[in-house]
Amino acid sequence: MAAVECLAAWLGRLPFSEALDLQMRICELKKRGNAPDVLLLLEHPPTITLGRSGLRENLLVDEAALARRGIELHHIDRGGDITYHGPGQLVGYPLLLLENGERDVRGYMRNLEQSLIDLLGGYGVAAGREDGFTGVWTPAGKVAAMGVHISRWVTRHGFALNVNTDLSYYDLIVPCGIRGKGVTSMSALLRRPLEMDEVASRYLPLFGAVFHRSVTPVDRDFLENIIGRSRSA
User: pTM for the whole thing?
Assistant: First the structure.
């Protein structure tokens, strides 16, 4: 299968609502055939999200306690339960039109997992899948969570990979609604911090290889110009 064009933008730290708005704008254009595939890579300020199957009981503090700590709470339309996003976490939002041979939700999730397993392997981290669960796991715990939304075969939301994440925030939730399983990060496993933009850069060719995309790095301004031109087309 020939590689499909995909633009990839490292956006740095972006509020959750702003990133969600950007996803929605691009996906609406994609459904009309007016935008290329896009991979957004970024960090969020401290944020907790509840997916479609999220249970309030898996949030272990009240919303007032979150507000006092400056943590946002969002109920969203991705699959899965509850998760945390924050500084030091690489969040990836692939906004892809799945082609005929790719239209398998389970297969799409497995490809997301594989791209992260490959990234971790490049750093010498042994990671894989856990039977019965989504995401990427190590013997020390879950290192990447994922939840997606697919409409008319256009994908939204994606993954959250703990790179330098402050893992104490996970004490506020039952991560992904899974009790008795821990979480970890790349920095905890490697015993050193990593540069976020460098991790993002190393991810791009691995994503491209797994998803058969020809990935071109762009900046936010270029992406906004593409969106603007597509809207007026």
Answer: 0.95
